[in-house]
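Re: the request from the purification team.
They wanted to know what the chain is likely to look like in 3D before they choose a buffer screen. I agreed to run a prediction and write the result into the notebook, where they can find it.
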Amino acid sequence: MRFTKMHGLGNDFIVVDAIHNAIHDPADLAIRVCERRFAFGADGLILIGASDCADASMRIYNSDGSEAEMCGNGIRCVAKYLYDNNICKKDDMTIDTLSGVKPIRLRIESGVAVAATVDMGAPEFRPEHIPVAAETNRVRIPLDERVVEFFCVSMGNPHAVTFDIFPERKDFVRLGPELEHHPLFPAKANIEFCQLDGPDSVTVAVWERGAGPTLACGTGSCAVLAAGAEMGLLNRRADVLLPGGTLHNEWRDDGHIYMTGPAEVSGIGEFQS
């Protein structure tokens, strides 16, 4: 079965056309093809399917086989795939995800989609809808010798954002899984450690639920903007600097956050399904 390896700011995916190819066990396939030493390697597996309410559908499975509700970097790759492969030759399209239908506007250069702006929807702050096992979406967690505050938000999937600490690598890889599986997060959580650069810029390290350290996280960048703006730390339009590059996000007057960033093809290959 043919696949395309794609990435958004280094957040990489094995992308498969599931419209014309039946995938019987996507969780198992994700574990197999995303392994970086014995297979092709990726943060996740994306299946592009048909939809009766959008131009196409997207399902994403993390490298551990778990299914995610939404992926901001992944959806830009899906839009590029659809356009470049003449499946949906439109600058404006919609993609059906587990967190709803997302409108996308592509930037086309020399007949190729190079970037996209995605309407990521409105951030959700109600604890029961994130979900967070607390009465408020702002929780305090003891870590080592201090108590760290996390601002929790859903962008179709759960995030816990902190501006209190920006750990060194050894602490990042230790704290990430501990926080992802913390009892306060019944559906687990993506963890964003933030370093404020100014009201229009923030540097972020992401521990992604089901994948671990990733070079970028689109939904996470939107969660950071929402948390920072609500806390009075960021303006409603800001650059989010991730290890793989920068996403340009804006929380507009309609209540939705719009994320803009690139999508690229790394290569094309085949695997035995």
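For the purification team: The first strand starts at residue 2 and ends at 8.
Please add any questions underneath this entry.
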